[in-house]
Amino acid sequence: MKVGIIGVGGIAVGRHIPAFKQLQDDCVIAAVSDINIERAAEVANEHNIPHVFANYKDMFAEVDAVCICTPNKFHAQYAIEALKAGVHVLCEKPMALSKEQCEQMIKAANEADKVLAIAYHYRFMKEAQAAKRMMEEVGRPLVARVKALRRRKVPGWGVFTNKDLQGGGSLIDYGCHLLDLAIWLMGNPKHVQVVGSTYNELSRTPNQINQWGTFNHETFEVDDHVTAYITFQNGASLLLETSWAANVKDDQEHVSISGTHGGISVFPFELYTSKNGVLLNTEAAWIDGEEDFSKLQAKNFIEACSKKAELIVKPEEALQVSAIIDEIYRSSQASTRS
């Protein structure tokens, strides 16, 4: 299978190109495209990729599938055009900037009978895969807790702080990963209510420490700290907190779920149960699985395109994550106006 890469920024060079290159028995990277044609040519030369295009549309005739690694604003447009051209799509997260755009992407995929996958790679981590296998120990999920916290790590490169191109900040860039993971582990229940608050005071304050490069506090226009409370049709609830910049003790990645039979934590992997008058905390001494989750993600996509496997991240599930993100932002804006 011939794969093309649209956008040759950090996520393409650091994750997707190395992942696809490990699957040489199943696919080959045949082309790259970027508005910076010089950079695209450098990447192609470095990775022995034969075709370089300034216009991504010219790539479609040369490939069977594309991996979209552009700013979020272009995800829907590029994916829909690729699907209509008969090309499978792996699109970086978030799926798109709105629920409506996500629905248009799914419609295009269904009409073309092509695969549309979204790169929520946390699902492929071996801890996440183990948690999915162990959810029967939890029973019916009742409450989920998600923390995706960085103390002072605003991305000081690329267009991460550009609201027009990205649609948001810490929530749509980072928190979405663990939000998606938690909802997947819960069995993808449908949400019914979302209440959220967004903040960016720290990143708009001069002379703040930042561990990930520099950015202009005067033009910072996205969220750097977000909280939300989400309820689902089955009665379950989810508490979310995510940040790029927050006055907290340390960085935290946490997903835990409490259910009718027990509880589970993903990072670190632990089970919480009660038996025979004993409260038990069970730690994992070893977890089977591939360490390279990027390779697993690429492999699942290629195998789904070849009808050898079912997608682990279905576009309808990614749509719900984008819908919840939409509602968190709208909830915060509504509370600010009132």
Q: Main attributes?
A:
338 residues; alpha/beta; Dihydrodipicolinate Reductase, domain 2; 2 domains; eight-stranded mixed β-sheet; six-stranded parallel β-sheet; 33% helix; globular
General description of the model:
By secondary structure, the chain is an alpha/beta fold. It is 33% helix and 25% strand. The chain has helices spanning 10-21, 37-46, 75-84, 99-112, 126-133, 163-166, 170-185, 293-305, 315-337, and strands at residues 2-6, 28-33, 51-53, 65-68, 88-92, 116-119, 141-149, 191-199, 225-232, 237-243, 252-259, 263-265, 270-275, 278-283. The mean pLDDT is 97.
Characterize this entry briefly.
The protein has helices spanning 10-21, 37-46, 75-84, 99-112, 126-133, 163-166, 170-185, 293-305, 315-337, and strands at residues 2-6, 28-33, 51-53, 65-68, 88-92, 116-119, 141-149, 191-199, 225-232, 237-243, 252-259, 263-265, 270-275, 278-283.
Number of helices: 9
Mean pLDDT comes to 97
Measure the end-to-end span. Answer: 53 Å
Q: If you compute it from the alpha carbons, what radius of gyration comes out, rounded to the nearest whole angstrom? A: 20 Å
The assigned structural class equals alpha/beta
* H-E string: EHEHEEHEHEHEHHEEEEEEEHH
Portion of residues in helices?
25-40%
CATH class of the largest domain: Alpha Beta
CATH arch. level architecture of the largest domain? 2-Layer Sandwich
Strand order of the largest sheet: 8-9-10-7-11-12-13-14
In CATH, the topology of the largest domain is named Dihydrodipicolinate Reductase, domain 2
Please state roughly what percent of the residues sit in beta strands, choosing from under 5%, 5-15%, 15-25%, 25-35%, 35-45% or over 45%: 15-25%
| Tally of strands | 14
Whole-number tally of structural domains? 2
Shape: globular
Unreliable stretches (pLDDT < 50, length at least 5) are none
Largest sheet geometry: 8 strands, mixed
